[in-house]
Design a protein that fits this description.
mainly alpha
């Protein structure tokens, strides 16, 4: 059996809560403590959940968009870095001291935040080697191009921070939604149980509440 979605669960709860106010049902429920005040509480709770549900969806979309933007720039930066590194390593192959100064053979960090810092530092080291930089200009690597590559990395840092912030907001929105959903679930459990008692023998009324009576 397929797992019920949140939207499907909310639809069932909406039917239960709002149809319980129908004139042929409400008086019977009132005999068991489900009066107008109690029903209003349920409607308010349901509407609060809907608000939090929509908020969580919005935050989730914003998180996805933020990470999509981050991944696009990350891919661009990594592609450009690999190209730069290959050319610089080739061009500096005869000068081991230079290679040591620019750390061309250092281990490549995998964690993105560390990789960004390492790559910015690498570009800075190359920019300090003025004569070498002049010699590789014919390969398309210039001080201007490296400065642009550094700027792209700074942009990536900003996008990463924005994505992490959006993730935090999405997680908080999910937490608040789930807390309120638990309250609604408890309310509906009580309402459904009382309805089965109050409307016992009247399957057509129970079905109006979305409660299927087994025959």
């Amino acid at each position: 059996m397929a797992t019920e979605t949140i939207a499907e669960s909310l639809q069932r709860k909406r039917v239960l809560i709002f149809n319980s106010k129908k004139p042929q049902i409400a008086p019977k429920l009132a005999l068991f403590g489900i009066d107008a005040t109690h029903q209003t509480t349920g409607e308010t709770l349901y509407n609060e959940v809907i608000t939090l549900y929509e908020k969580q969806k919005q935050e989730g979309q914003e998180e996805s968009l933020a990470y999509d933007n981050s991944f696009k720039v990350e891919s661009k930066c990594k592609t450009k870095y690999k190209l730069n590194r290959k050319i610089i390593k080739m061009a500096s192959r005869a000068d081991k001291d230079l290679q040591s100064r620019i750390k061309i053979n250092d281990y490549q960090e995998r964690k993105i935040e560390v990789w960004i810092a390492q790559t910015i530092n690498f570009y800075n080291l190359v920019l300090n080697e003025v004569e070498f930089l002049e010699s590789i200009a014919r390969f398309g690597i210039t001080s201007e191009s490296l400065m642009q590559d550094k700027s792209d990395l700074e942009t990536l840092k900003t996008l990463r921070n924005e994505a992490l912030s959006e993730r935090g907001e999405a997680q908080e929105a999910t937490r608040l939604r789930d807390l309120k959903m638990d309250e609604l679930q408890d309310y509906c459990y009580e309402l459904r149980t009382i309805a089965k008692i109050a409307l016992s023998g009247e399957p057509q009324l129970l079905e109006m509440l979305g409660i299927i009576v087994r025959k």
